[in-house]
Design brief:
Blueprint (H helix, E strand, L loop, with lengths): L2 H10 L7 H10 L4 E2 H8 L3 H14 L5 E6 L2 E6 L4 H8 L8 H13 L2 E2 H8 L1 E2 L1 H9 L3 E7 L6 E5 L1 H6 L13 H8 L6 E4 L17 E2 L2
Antiparallel strand pairs: 1-3, 2-3, 4-7, 5-9, 6-7, 6-8
Helix pairs in contact: 1-3, 2-4, 3-4, 6-8
């Protein structure tokens, strides 16, 4: 929703009591992550109330089969890790396994986001185009915006599917890096974002049957 639509929604509708149950129901039927601003506009309430209810809901769900995932300003519900095996059996397939190259690339993006493909390749030392496209296709990473570097390349970061796949409720739960590894990633520095793409969808291109370990030398 645009800011104008949210403002109009807040003005035209009567306020609804944002109970913990009502918030859970809203997130359950939502087909995508919702921002706190969207929730506030839909309920006709303020951000403080939304934050309070989200906190209550997060606590209430800790020992249940559903978890509240938080990614910056956006929130959504997802199945708890404890039920993963049973859910996977119900849908008829286990989670797709990631190759070592994909895991390495995903780790770089998770800890260095937002990051360009060029920066990923400098850290890994190999061409990573196919690996990045694979992670986009699986929705583990998303395009966050564009860098201010020449050519304005895309900046990549992790998405909600990443949090759900690795049983995290937020990026703050990522384990700390080894000192040497952290220093290696820090060498690349930050990536300024000039054109955010908050609603960018991951690519749905089919995977190519080629290796992603092509040297950049």
């Amino acid at each position: 929703m645009s800011d104008e639509t949210l403002d109009a929604t807040a003005e035209d509708r009567q306020p609804i009591d944002l109970t913990e149950a009502a918030l859970e129901a809203l997130l359950f039927v939502a087909e995508r992550p919702l921002t706190r601003r969207e929730i506030a506009a839909l309920a006709g309430t303020d951000r403080a109330t939304v934050d309070e209810r989200l906190g209550d809901l997060e606590v209430a769900l800790r020992d249940r089969g559903i978890r509240l995932l938080v990614d910056g300003d956006r929130v959504e519900l997802a199945t708890a890790p404890d039920g993963g095996a049973l859910v996977a059996r119900y849908v008829g397939a286990d989670a797709v396994r990631l190759s070592p190259a994909s895991l390495e690339t995903l780790a770089i993006i998770a800890y260095r986001q937002p990051v360009t493909r060029a920066a990923i390749e400098r850290i890994r030392g190999v061409d990573s185009d196919y690996t990045v496209r694979t992670l986009l296709h699986r929705r583990l990473i998303v395009e966050l915006g564009r860098s201010s570097a020449p050519g304005r390349p895309f900046l990549y970061g992790t998405g909600f599917d990443f949090l759900e796949r690795f049983a995290l409720t937020s990026l703050e739960e990522l384990p700390p890096l080894d000192v040497d590894v952290a220093a290696r990633l820090a060498e690349e520095g930050g990536e300024p974002m000039t054109e955010p793409l908050f609603d960018a969808e991951a690519s749905d291109a089919p995977e190519a049957g080629v290796s992603d370990e092509r040297s950049t030398a």
